[in-house]
Amino acid sequence: MRFARAILARPYKFTVILLVANLFVFLLMWESSGMSSQALWPGFSEPVLATYGAKLNYLISQYHQWWRFVTPMFIHINLPHVMINMYSLWMVGPYVEKLYGSAKFVVFWVFSGILSVVASYLAVRPDLATGLVGRFLFRIEDVPSAGASGALFGLVGVLFVFGIKFRRELPEGFKRAFGVGMIPIIVINLFIGFLGRGFIDNAAHLGGLVTGAALALAAEYRRPGDRTDVSVVWRVLQAASLVIVVAAAYKVVRNFKRPVPLSSQQIVQARQQAFLNFVNGMNLLQEQKSRVTHDNDVTQVDAVTQIVVHIPAPDAKAAELRDRLLSILSKMVQAVNEGKRVDQGLTDEFNTWHEDYEEWFKGAH
Questions:
Q1: Residue 94, CA distances (Å) to 84, 91, 97, 148, 258 in order
Q2: pLDDT (tens digit, 9 = 90+) per residue, 62-77?
Q3: How many domains, the chain?
Q4: Which domain does 317 fall in, by range?
């Protein structure tokens, strides 16, 4: 009992700070989503997640946004996600901070969180995401990854190693609670991850767990009656951890108003969509040309023209072809409005245009 009182009476201020920080960021994300109740349950949109620092591999590898190895541990996808993780932090965090002190606790949290994101980054391997084990560890798509669960698994790893490493000097209650007592928690969470392997980032969880366990192997806990002095190494590591977090937060704020860059695949898809939109517009204009020449119907020409002129042209040649067709169509409409037939000269001009358009289409397609 004296041992338990000595441990449990210690403060756990950084656990509270982390909990408040996570909830504060979640509220900011909700505000950015228009305070919509829909955003709380299905989850925040990908642009919101990316703006606040979710991990997306292409933003790290192509655009060198290194801070995305840090920020995911402070953002969450929806309300159940943040509530489950913050409840877990409230249950586990105080024990780790009381046993090891605030300096080591901060190091455990930040390093476990960062290396869990690194593991998630390395696990986006479509070629390896086959079979039960492959689908459990690896991911097919580069989708936003966020949450404090990797860092939380790190704290679980710390308590697991703590209970085993110091089992000979711990009271019976601590032996049952930590060490092998953590195995059911680890197994249950990994089983949940297995069931939800399509959307749960199991690589991040395992990365955090291994990191926390490795750090705990090198750390001594604060025994009852020990002096409270902390070695310079841990103080330096704590300061470095906080500097990294602040620097990552600064990067998010600095880039907050800037649009999130597109991936190579998204750029290709956007170009393809722009091409299809333009071609559909040109098809509409050619349909109007047929109505004008065959039926003398000019009723929809102005409306269609207004639509097509606002569709971006994929390139300069496409814009020139559109302007030529609009000019030809305008001359045909004028002829019909004057009660004349569309003469052969306009028809020949359209046929020449159509040949040029087909040549451009084949090259662009």
A1: 16, 7, 5, 16, 38
A2: 999 999 999 999 999 9
A3: 2
A4: 264-364
